[in-house]
Design brief:
Blueprint: H1 3-9, H2 31-41, E1 42-43, H3 68-78, E2 93-94, H4 97-110, E3 115-122, E4 130-140, E5 145-149, H5 155-161, E6 175-177, H6 178-186, E7 195-197, E8 200-201, H7 203-217, E9 226-227, H8 239-252, H9 259-268, E10 277-282, E11 285-290
Parallel strand pairs: 1-2, 4-7
Antiparallel strand pairs: 3-4, 3-6, 4-5, 7-8, 9-10, 10-11
Helix pairs in contact: 2-4, 6-7, 6-8, 7-8
Amino acid sequence: MNPDLNYYRQQGPISEPGSLNRLFDVLPAQVEGLVGAVQGVTIHPFWLESYGLKLPGERFQELQLRTTARRLERTLELDPRPLNEARAVDKKLLGNCRDHSLLLVSMLRHAGIAARARCGFGAYFQPNHYEDHWVCEYWEAAGQRWVLVDPQLDDVQRKVLRIGFNPLDVPRDQFIVGGMAWQMCRSGQADPASFGIFDMSGLGFVRGNLLRDVAALNKMELLPWDCWGVMLKDDLEDADDLSALDAAAALTALDVPDPLRVRSAYESDTRLKMDGSLQSYINGKMVMVDIR
């Protein structure tokens, strides 16, 4: 058995559903069916108006739920039915792209399919712009390849965004993983200002998604606003830091041919590794969080 694939078949501390893994037993083993289940219980806050929905402010605290176990607990609080039964839109759990991807990763791993979350940028949200985004990547045994899946893109979003590709097989030029984005910006191939979200962009933003992708490849699928290590530095002038980031990008661009080297780099470099404490953007301010 391929040890790399076996590593990604096993749950990590964030994707682990705990005692609620029983909820996955009723789900189909096919990717398309699992994506449907994710969309049946999760709704993205940016798209609420498209579904004719407005939620009270306290519901947005659901976006701070970091682990699959806690997110499943809240899912059942909102609606106790099995996960293969789609909820009414107001009973779906609020979740961004990372949350959709994490849930699919957890479901796939439960089904024995190697899967991992990827942090990077989508080219399909705005013209000439790479939007801060997460997707899921799973090992397709039949094709012997890693396949990108965007479980957030339901029928409503595909229509509005005029998506011209299959979200179950996202082209590599449509989702740019953090390492590739870093390489594109560092080489001058792309303008760092075209990577980001809202008024946040630039090489520092790309650095953050590079580190989040490295962590996710080590089964630490952290929140999009969690910050640690070299991500906390205000400047990008340190030559050693840039060299370490270049090396991390080289290891994690595209579908990661050598996950063992990625794990070794992550475990051995405090600039890359999340050691249990981080800063996270909560209720309008950055606060220290210990998730150990």
